[in-house]
Structures are given as C-alpha cells and as structure tokens.
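Thread title: Can someone regenerate the structure for this chain?

I was given the following input by a collaborator and told the matching structure tokens would be attached. They weren't. Posting the sequence so someone can regenerate them.
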Amino acid sequence: MHRRRILLVALIAGCTHRPPETAPSVAVHRTLAVYRAIAESIYVNTTGRVVAVASAPLDTTCTGSDCQPLASRWGLDLLWWARGDTSSARAARDDLLARSANPLSLRGLALSGGMLLETDPGDVPPLDADVSEWIRFRSTHADAAGALRISPVGFSPSGHSAIAVVDWRCGPTCGHTLGVSLTATSDSTWSISEMLLISSRGTK
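Best answer:
Regenerated them for you:
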C-alpha cells in the first residue's frame, strides 16, 4: 500500500510538472543586438521616427536570367569590411551565406524605446509601390519612416565582428541596400564600423 501511494504521488507530480521554458540562446540575443544596432543607429536616429522591420529575412531569390550569385548581389565578394584579417572576414561572410535562408526571429527586438515595429513582410511596399501604397503603409504602421528588411547575421569566429545586409524602403524613389559591418563593444552591444552602399533608389 505504501509503495502504491508513492507511485501515485510520483505520477501526479509528473503530470502537473511543466518543463521550464527554454531561454533564448546566446546566438539569438547576439543577433537581436546586431539588428537593434543597425535599425536604431542608421534609421531611427536619422529619421527620428518609428522603423518597421520585416519579420522575414531579406529575400535571397532571383528569378532573372542574369542573376548573379548571392555573394555578388549582396556585395560580399570584395571583403570590404576586412581590417587586415581576411581569414576572419571570409569566415564571417561564409557564416552569413550559410544562414541566408534561415527564419528571422525578431521576438524582443521592439523592447528598446518602442521605435522598432515588427511587420509582416507582405505589408512592406514593393519596389514599384506608388505614393498611395506608402500612405496606406504609414497609416497602418505608426507613421513609420520606412521598412527595413535584414539578412541573417554572419559572425567572425571570435564573435567580435559581424556582417549583415539590409534593404531600406522609404518611398517610391527612396531607399537603398547596404552592407553593414559591426564590432562588439560589450557582450550585448555593437557599433557600426563600416558600411557599403550596394544599390540606391535615390532620395525622397
């Protein structure tokens, strides 16, 4: 009887026990910190307005007959962010390309001052969007200055430098694609060290 009681208690405890929620990995925290540094340092700080961030990675597909390899389209062939250590730069580039099709996790991104707004990628106006589409987008996205689409982040083996590609859309003739290199200033903060203009849609 005593053994049955112990077994029953154990079964009840097993049924009511909930495993602890898995904490976000260090890699996720590090990636979010890079996204936040890019979105705030380049776009929030220059526009003073909310920035919408698409919740899917920068599109890697190209359907044209003259499509170049992804590394060329994203301006990664030149290793322009290398600072004398090309092996580290190559490793960061390769890490980025290996992650190019990964899902983009933005949970926790908008915790910094409320100036970053997660948005469905389907809501981001296409390249040929007219003024009316941008008016609609801003009216439903907190009057956002524009929409940012970000690639996954490539990290150097040391974890002290990172590389990402961003596509910024802010109007019918406004936007650009940038390569952004960052350097870690602490375990959770990053500063932008280099930028490369890959393409531009002019200014508004």
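The first helix runs from residue 2 to 16.
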